[in-house]
Amino acid sequence: MDFTFSEQQLAFRDATSRFLMTEAAPEMLREIWETDVGRSPQLRAKLAAQGLTSLSVAEIQGGFGGDDVDWSLITQELGYYCIPDSLADTAYVAVGLLAGLESLTPLAGELLRNIASGSMRIAVGHPVNALVADAHLADMLLLCHQGEVHVVPRASIEVELNPSIDQSRRLCQVTWTPTARTRVADAELGRGLWAEALDRGALCVAGQLIGLAQRMLDLSVDYAAQRKQFGRPIGAFQAIKHHLADVVTKIEFAKPVLYMAAHAMARKRSGRSLRVSHAKLACADAAWLAARHGLQVHGAMGYAWETDLQMFMKRAWALDASWGDRSLHKARVADFVLCNFARLGPGDVDDV
Q: What spatial distance separates the first Cα and last Cα of the chain, rounded to whole Å?
């Protein structure tokens, strides 16, 4: 399989990286954390101006018509810079759901155009997540009731903020009443849409976890080059080198799994859910190892509020449990691998 990205995809990824390097520096993230809502309307407007809110929206609705493979690159950048915004929930997961509703209700098309213009923030309340991210700021919410899909204005719900170990996440308990007016898809259609949203949400998290792992690795390498012990940088010692090399290996082995899952999603292959679960597990393992070894390289400093490492560690730990915990994704992989007729091996890799 060819995992080569096009020049356009790489150029967009690089432009996004340069933009976030300036607009999402660690000191700026700390300032946003300390605000009441934990979000920056200015940052969201700049993200929209960069075209990130319109990446998945169809061209006829003002977007770029990007797919899951495009997002596999962008989500890594969102993770690397740990942005305090649920951009991907609106621009990737919600867009996928609304695209499936477009033929049923004119409202879906209107919402997609608003997302593309950057004028609307949409939160997704998937049954697999107990809390809804950024529900306190969302203009509209996509919520599930017994498999049905409901589009609900924020003014019609009650929101209670829930604390998170990650200061940049704003998770909410949502109380609402489903009605015939808010329902846009029945349970028969809705179950398929929510299943696809789960895959898209998990893939989104997997990409961010790889970005977080790479950032923690880079921070650890910088620290190992500057911190001296016995007159030498600690990075010169074999034990430190082995720690960092193990993280590099874990990240590089997880990337193809992520790209395979994105490719399967973009082409709607039958085994895409299996690929997504594999990707989330592999990327989470890389992020956890980067956090654990990063802590050891930093010594006691890694936990300190003043260090940047703790910001990325906490985001990785929090994301690992979202859009399906490990037991859910391990079960989906096990159901395939342990069945009597599992088609395992290189010859079957593209047909799963």
A: 14
